[in-house]
DNA sequence: CATTACCTGCAA
DNA sequence: TTGCAGGTAATG
Protein backbone atom coordinates (compact mmCIF):
# COMPACT_ATOMS: atom_id res chain seq x y z
CA UNK A 1 0.00 0.00 0.00
CA UNK A 2 1.03 3.56 -0.27
CA UNK A 3 2.92 4.86 2.72
CA UNK A 4 4.05 8.43 3.20
CA UNK A 5 6.55 8.51 0.29
CA UNK A 6 4.05 7.03 -2.16
CA UNK A 7 1.29 9.45 -1.12
CA UNK A 8 3.74 12.35 -1.29
CA UNK A 9 4.91 11.31 -4.77
CA UNK A 10 1.32 11.30 -5.97
CA UNK A 11 0.62 14.59 -4.21
CA UNK A 12 3.49 16.34 -5.92
CA UNK A 13 2.32 15.30 -9.34
CA UNK A 14 -1.31 16.16 -8.72
CA UNK A 15 -0.40 19.48 -7.13
CA UNK A 16 1.31 20.47 -10.36
CA UNK A 17 -1.62 19.64 -12.58
CA UNK A 18 -4.87 19.85 -10.63
CA UNK A 19 -5.24 23.21 -8.88
CA UNK A 20 -7.68 25.43 -10.73
CA UNK A 21 -9.41 22.48 -12.41
CA UNK A 22 -13.17 22.22 -12.09
CA UNK A 23 -15.08 19.01 -11.61
CA UNK A 24 -17.51 18.49 -14.49
CA UNK A 25 -18.87 15.06 -13.57
CA UNK A 26 -18.60 12.39 -10.90
CA UNK A 27 -18.91 8.66 -11.52
CA UNK A 28 -19.03 6.38 -8.50
CA UNK A 29 -18.54 2.93 -9.95
CA UNK A 30 -18.31 1.16 -6.60
CA UNK A 31 -20.30 2.91 -3.88
CA UNK A 32 -18.32 1.05 -1.19
CA UNK A 33 -15.47 3.44 -1.91
CA UNK A 34 -17.47 6.40 -0.64
CA UNK A 35 -17.49 6.86 3.12
CA UNK A 36 -19.74 9.94 3.23
CA UNK A 37 -21.97 11.70 2.47
CA UNK A 38 -24.41 9.65 0.40
CA UNK A 39 -23.64 9.36 -3.34
CA UNK A 40 -26.25 11.93 -4.40
CA UNK A 41 -25.06 14.60 -1.97
CA UNK A 42 -21.43 13.79 -2.74
CA UNK A 43 -22.01 14.28 -6.45
CA UNK A 44 -24.07 17.43 -6.00
CA UNK A 45 -21.42 19.10 -3.86
CA UNK A 46 -18.55 18.06 -6.10
CA UNK A 47 -19.90 18.92 -9.53
CA UNK A 48 -18.83 22.42 -10.46
CA UNK A 49 -16.34 22.62 -7.59
CA UNK A 50 -12.81 23.90 -8.17
CA UNK A 51 -9.83 21.99 -6.81
CA UNK A 52 -7.77 24.60 -4.98
CA UNK A 53 -4.75 22.54 -3.91
CA UNK A 54 -3.52 19.03 -3.25
CA UNK A 55 -2.18 18.50 0.24
CA UNK A 56 -1.07 15.56 2.33
CA UNK A 57 -1.28 14.66 5.99
CA UNK A 58 0.37 11.33 6.81
CA UNK A 59 -1.12 8.91 4.26
CA UNK A 60 -4.18 11.05 3.57
CA UNK A 61 -4.48 13.14 0.42
CA UNK A 62 -6.58 16.23 1.01
CA UNK A 63 -8.00 18.36 -1.77
CA UNK A 64 -9.56 21.65 -0.65
CA UNK A 65 -12.50 22.60 -2.86
CA UNK A 66 -14.34 25.77 -3.67
CA UNK A 67 -17.95 24.90 -4.23
CA UNK A 68 -19.72 25.86 -7.43
CA UNK A 69 -21.24 29.33 -7.49
CA UNK A 70 -24.94 29.00 -6.85
CA UNK A 71 -26.68 29.73 -10.16
CA UNK A 72 -29.20 32.13 -8.62
CA UNK A 73 -28.75 35.90 -8.86
CA UNK A 74 -30.17 36.43 -5.42
CA UNK A 75 -28.66 35.27 -2.12
CA UNK A 76 -25.19 36.76 -2.16
CA UNK A 77 -22.55 34.72 -0.36
CA UNK A 78 -22.55 35.18 3.37
CA UNK A 79 -18.78 34.91 3.44
CA UNK A 80 -17.40 37.15 0.73
CA UNK A 81 -13.84 36.64 -0.50
CA UNK A 82 -13.34 33.76 1.88
CA UNK A 83 -11.60 31.55 -0.63
CA UNK A 84 -9.77 34.26 -2.47
CA UNK A 85 -8.19 35.36 0.76
CA UNK A 86 -6.96 31.84 1.36
CA UNK A 87 -5.26 31.46 -1.99
CA UNK A 88 -2.88 34.36 -1.68
CA UNK A 89 -0.83 33.14 1.28
CA UNK A 90 -0.37 29.79 -0.45
CA UNK A 91 1.76 31.49 -3.08
CA UNK A 92 3.65 33.52 -0.54
CA UNK A 93 4.34 30.44 1.52
CA UNK A 94 6.03 28.68 -1.40
CA UNK A 95 8.17 31.63 -2.31
CA UNK A 96 9.26 32.24 1.25
CA UNK A 97 10.17 28.67 2.12
CA UNK A 98 11.93 26.54 -0.49
CA UNK A 99 13.10 23.74 1.84
CA UNK A 100 11.66 20.23 1.54
CA UNK A 101 10.08 20.43 4.98
CA UNK A 102 8.37 23.74 4.45
CA UNK A 103 5.42 22.42 2.50
CA UNK A 104 2.06 22.87 4.16
CA UNK A 105 1.56 19.20 4.96
CA UNK A 106 4.01 19.41 7.80
CA UNK A 107 2.09 22.07 9.63
CA UNK A 108 -0.36 20.47 11.99
CA UNK A 109 -3.56 22.42 12.02
CA UNK A 110 -2.80 24.51 8.95
CA UNK A 111 -5.11 23.66 6.13
CA UNK A 112 -6.01 25.58 3.06
CA UNK A 113 -9.29 27.36 3.82
CA UNK A 114 -12.06 25.99 1.62
CA UNK A 115 -15.73 25.06 1.44
CA UNK A 116 -15.18 21.31 1.37
CA UNK A 117 -12.28 18.90 1.46
CA UNK A 118 -12.08 15.77 -0.65
CA UNK A 119 -10.08 13.26 1.36
CA UNK A 120 -8.60 10.05 -0.03
CA UNK A 121 -7.03 7.18 1.88
CA UNK A 122 -5.61 4.47 -0.35
CA UNK A 123 -5.23 1.76 2.29
CA UNK A 124 -3.57 -1.27 0.69
CA UNK A 125 -3.93 -1.05 -3.07
CA UNK A 126 -5.56 2.27 -3.93
CA UNK A 127 -4.11 4.44 -6.69
CA UNK A 128 -4.98 7.86 -8.07
CA UNK A 129 -4.39 8.46 -11.74
CA UNK A 130 -4.65 11.70 -13.66
CA UNK A 131 -5.47 10.68 -17.23
CA UNK A 132 -5.69 12.62 -20.48
CA UNK A 133 -9.04 12.88 -22.27
CA UNK A 134 -9.87 9.60 -23.98
CA UNK A 135 -7.17 7.60 -22.18
CA UNK A 136 -7.82 3.85 -22.09
CA UNK A 137 -9.62 2.61 -18.98
CA UNK A 138 -7.74 1.53 -15.87
CA UNK A 139 -8.39 -1.76 -14.10
CA UNK A 140 -10.27 -1.70 -10.80
CA UNK A 141 -11.56 1.83 -11.21
CA UNK A 142 -13.98 2.64 -8.38
CA UNK A 143 -14.57 6.37 -8.96
CA UNK A 144 -13.85 8.98 -11.63
CA UNK A 145 -13.89 12.76 -11.45
CA UNK A 146 -14.09 14.15 -14.96
CA UNK A 147 -12.59 17.64 -15.12
CA UNK A 148 -13.95 20.45 -17.25
CA UNK A 149 -11.11 20.05 -19.77
CA UNK A 150 -11.85 16.35 -20.22
CA UNK A 151 -9.06 15.00 -18.06
CA UNK A 152 -10.04 12.34 -15.57
CA UNK A 153 -8.92 11.89 -11.98
CA UNK A 154 -9.43 8.15 -11.49
CA UNK A 155 -9.52 6.33 -8.17
CA UNK A 156 -8.57 2.70 -8.70
CA UNK A 157 -8.34 0.00 -6.05
CA UNK A 158 -7.88 -3.71 -6.52
CA UNK A 159 -8.80 -4.78 -3.00
CA UNK A 160 -11.43 -2.11 -2.47
CA UNK A 161 -10.32 -1.10 1.02
CA UNK A 162 -9.55 2.44 -0.05
CA UNK A 163 -11.95 5.25 0.83
CA UNK A 164 -12.77 8.74 -0.26
CA UNK A 165 -15.09 11.23 1.41
CA UNK A 166 -16.00 14.85 1.76
CA UNK A 167 -15.11 16.64 4.97
CA UNK A 168 -15.45 20.13 6.40
CA UNK A 169 -12.67 22.15 7.98
CA UNK A 170 -13.54 20.93 11.48
CA UNK A 171 -13.16 17.32 10.43
CA UNK A 172 -9.84 18.01 8.74
CA UNK A 173 -8.64 19.69 11.93
CA UNK A 174 -9.80 16.72 14.01
CA UNK A 175 -7.99 14.31 11.72
CA UNK A 176 -4.86 16.42 12.00
CA UNK A 177 -5.05 16.40 15.79
CA UNK A 178 -5.57 12.66 15.96
CA UNK A 179 -2.46 11.89 13.93
CA UNK A 180 1.08 11.94 15.28
CA UNK A 181 3.68 14.36 13.94
CA UNK A 182 4.79 14.44 10.32
CA UNK A 183 8.17 12.71 10.47
CA UNK A 184 9.71 14.92 7.76
CA UNK A 185 8.51 18.21 9.21
CA UNK A 186 11.07 20.41 10.91
CA UNK A 187 9.26 20.07 14.20
CA UNK A 188 9.84 16.32 14.34
CA UNK A 189 12.95 16.11 16.47
CA UNK A 190 14.56 13.24 18.33
CA UNK A 191 13.12 14.77 21.49
CA UNK A 192 9.65 14.65 19.97
CA UNK A 193 10.12 10.98 19.08
CA UNK A 194 11.37 10.27 22.57
CA UNK A 195 8.28 11.99 23.98
CA UNK A 196 6.01 9.89 21.77
CA UNK A 197 7.68 6.69 22.99
CA UNK A 198 7.90 7.72 26.64
CA UNK A 199 5.91 5.50 28.95
CA UNK A 200 5.30 2.94 26.20
CA UNK A 201 6.24 -0.62 26.78
CA UNK A 202 5.11 -2.16 23.53
CA UNK A 203 7.18 -3.64 20.73
CA UNK A 204 8.98 -1.18 18.50
CA UNK A 205 7.48 -2.34 15.26
CA UNK A 206 3.79 -2.07 16.19
CA UNK A 207 4.49 1.26 17.88
CA UNK A 208 6.00 2.70 14.72
CA UNK A 209 3.01 1.48 12.72
CA UNK A 210 0.71 3.33 15.09
CA UNK A 211 -0.24 6.52 13.26
CA UNK A 212 -1.04 8.32 16.51
CA UNK A 213 2.62 8.28 17.58
CA UNK A 214 4.32 9.11 14.30
CA UNK A 215 2.25 9.46 11.14
CA UNK A 216 3.06 8.04 7.74
CA UNK A 217 5.15 4.93 8.29
CA UNK A 218 3.86 1.58 7.04
CA UNK A 219 5.21 -1.94 6.88
CA UNK A 220 7.97 -1.32 4.31
CA UNK A 221 9.46 1.81 5.82
CA UNK A 222 9.21 0.56 9.41
CA UNK A 223 11.29 -2.50 8.53
CA UNK A 224 13.75 -0.32 6.64
CA UNK A 225 13.98 2.26 9.43
CA UNK A 226 14.56 -0.40 12.10
CA UNK A 227 17.32 -1.92 10.00
CA UNK A 228 18.95 1.47 9.44
CA UNK A 229 18.73 2.17 13.18
CA UNK A 230 20.08 -1.32 13.96
CA UNK A 231 17.15 -1.96 16.28
CA UNK A 232 15.33 -5.29 16.55
CA UNK A 233 11.63 -5.09 15.68
CA UNK A 234 10.68 -6.74 18.96
CA UNK A 235 12.76 -4.44 21.11
CA UNK A 236 10.53 -2.85 23.66
CA UNK A 237 10.24 0.92 23.67
CA UNK A 238 11.16 1.22 27.35
CA UNK A 239 14.58 -0.36 26.72
CA UNK A 240 15.74 2.29 24.26
CA UNK A 241 18.64 4.49 25.24
CA UNK A 242 18.86 8.13 24.13
CA UNK A 243 21.33 7.03 21.49
CA UNK A 244 18.88 4.42 20.22
CA UNK A 245 16.13 7.03 19.92
CA UNK A 246 18.41 9.41 18.06
CA UNK A 247 19.44 6.66 15.65
CA UNK A 248 15.81 5.72 15.12
CA UNK A 249 14.85 9.34 14.50
CA UNK A 250 17.56 9.75 11.88
CA UNK A 251 16.67 6.42 10.30
CA UNK A 252 12.97 7.23 9.99
CA UNK A 253 13.68 10.49 8.24
CA UNK A 254 16.36 8.98 6.03
CA UNK A 255 14.29 6.07 4.74
CA UNK A 256 11.25 8.26 4.08
CA UNK A 257 13.29 10.93 2.31
CA UNK A 258 14.96 8.25 0.18
CA UNK A 259 11.56 6.79 -0.65
CA UNK A 260 10.38 10.18 -1.88
CA UNK A 261 13.57 10.73 -3.88
CA UNK A 262 12.93 7.38 -5.57
CA UNK A 263 9.27 8.23 -6.15
CA UNK A 264 8.00 5.43 -3.94
CA UNK A 265 8.35 1.67 -3.57
CA UNK A 266 6.47 -0.52 -6.07
CA UNK A 267 6.59 -4.18 -5.14
CA UNK A 268 3.22 -4.87 -6.58
CA UNK A 269 0.34 -2.44 -6.77
CA UNK A 270 1.65 1.03 -6.10
CA UNK A 271 1.73 3.35 -9.12
CA UNK A 272 2.17 7.11 -9.31
CA UNK A 273 -0.33 9.58 -10.72
CA UNK A 274 0.60 8.82 -14.32
CA UNK A 275 0.77 5.07 -13.72
CA UNK A 276 4.53 4.94 -13.25
CA UNK A 277 6.14 2.57 -10.71
CA UNK A 278 8.52 3.88 -8.10
CA UNK A 279 12.17 2.91 -7.97
CA UNK A 280 12.71 2.46 -4.24
CA UNK A 281 12.15 -1.33 -4.34
CA UNK A 282 15.64 -1.49 -5.87
CA UNK A 283 17.07 0.23 -2.81
CA UNK A 284 15.46 -1.55 0.13
CA UNK A 285 17.86 -3.33 2.45
CA UNK A 286 15.63 -5.87 4.23
CA UNK A 287 12.02 -5.64 3.09
CA UNK A 288 11.15 -8.85 1.17
CA UNK A 289 14.83 -9.74 1.13
CA UNK A 290 14.53 -12.69 3.52
CA UNK A 291 16.94 -15.45 2.58
CA UNK A 292 19.38 -12.95 1.10
CA UNK A 293 22.52 -11.65 2.81
CA UNK A 294 22.36 -8.57 4.99
CA UNK A 295 23.97 -5.71 3.08
CA UNK A 296 25.91 -4.76 6.21
CA UNK A 297 27.14 -8.08 7.64
CA UNK A 298 26.12 -10.76 5.11
CA UNK A 299 24.08 -12.68 7.71
CA UNK A 300 20.96 -14.10 6.12
CA UNK A 301 17.93 -11.85 6.54
CA UNK A 302 14.99 -13.40 8.37
CA UNK A 303 11.27 -12.95 8.04
CA UNK A 304 8.94 -13.39 11.01
CA UNK A 305 5.58 -12.08 12.14
CA UNK A 306 5.44 -9.20 14.59
CA UNK A 307 2.17 -7.64 15.60
CA UNK A 308 0.49 -9.62 12.87
CA UNK A 309 2.65 -8.15 10.11
CA UNK A 310 5.36 -9.77 8.02
CA UNK A 311 8.64 -8.44 9.41
CA UNK A 312 12.09 -8.54 7.84
CA UNK A 313 15.32 -8.00 9.77
CA UNK A 314 18.94 -8.92 10.22
CA UNK A 315 19.31 -11.02 13.39
CA UNK A 316 22.93 -9.95 13.76
CA UNK A 317 22.81 -6.20 13.08
CA UNK A 318 19.53 -5.47 14.78
CA UNK A 319 19.40 -5.71 18.56
C1' DC B 1 -2.44 -6.44 23.66
C1' DA B 2 -3.75 -9.80 19.81
C1' DT B 3 -7.19 -11.21 16.51
C1' DT B 4 -10.70 -10.38 13.01
C1' DA B 5 -12.91 -8.11 9.34
C1' DC B 6 -12.83 -5.68 5.18
C1' DC B 7 -11.63 -7.41 -0.37
C1' DT B 8 -9.28 -9.36 -4.50
C1' DG B 9 -5.52 -11.64 -6.82
C1' DC B 10 -1.51 -14.22 -6.93
C1' DA B 11 2.22 -17.42 -5.49
C1' DA B 12 3.39 -21.32 -2.93
C1' DT C 1 -6.23 -24.85 -1.82
C1' DT C 2 -4.19 -22.00 1.44
C1' DG C 3 -1.97 -18.13 2.92
C1' DC C 4 -0.35 -13.81 2.26
C1' DA C 5 -0.30 -8.76 0.63
C1' DG C 6 2.26 -1.84 1.32
C1' DG C 7 -3.82 -0.41 6.31
C1' DT C 8 -6.95 0.52 9.69
C1' DA C 9 -11.17 0.06 12.57
C1' DA C 10 -13.58 -2.86 15.32
C1' DT C 11 -13.62 -6.43 18.22
C1' DG C 12 -12.22 -9.83 22.56
Please give a quick description of this structure.
The chain has about 325 residues and is of the alpha+beta class.
List the helices and strands and how they pair.
Layout: H1 4-17, E1 23-28, H2 39-46, E2 50-51, E3 55-57, E4 60-66, H3 82-96, E5 116-121, E6 126-131, E7 141-147, E8 152-157, E9 163-167, H4 169-178, H5 190-197, H6 204-209, H7 219-228, H8 242-261, E10 302-306, E11 309-313
Antiparallel strand pairs: 1-7, 2-4, 3-4, 4-5, 5-9, 6-8, 7-8, 10-11
Helix pairs in contact: 1-8, 5-8, 7-8
The structure holds a DNA duplex (12 and 12 nucleotides).
Q: In percent terms, what proportion of residues is strand?
A: 15-25%
Radius of gyration: 21 Å
What's the total count of β strands? Answer: 11
Note the gap between the termini. Answer: 27 Å
| Low-pLDDT residue intervals, each spanning 5 or more residues | 74-109
Basic shape: globular
Quaternary structure annotation? single chain
Question: What structural category arises from helix and sheet content?
Answer: alpha+beta
Q: Output the number of helix runs.
A: 8
Amino acid sequence: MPELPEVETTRRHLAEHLPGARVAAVALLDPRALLRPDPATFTRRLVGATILAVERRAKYLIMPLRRAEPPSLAAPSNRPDFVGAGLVPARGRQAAAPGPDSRPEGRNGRVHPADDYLIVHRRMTGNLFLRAPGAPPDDHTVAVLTLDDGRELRFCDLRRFAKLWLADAAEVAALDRALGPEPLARGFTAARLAAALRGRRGLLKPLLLNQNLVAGLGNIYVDEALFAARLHPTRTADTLTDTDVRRLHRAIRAVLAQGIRNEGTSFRDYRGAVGQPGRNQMMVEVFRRDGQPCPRCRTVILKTRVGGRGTHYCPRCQR
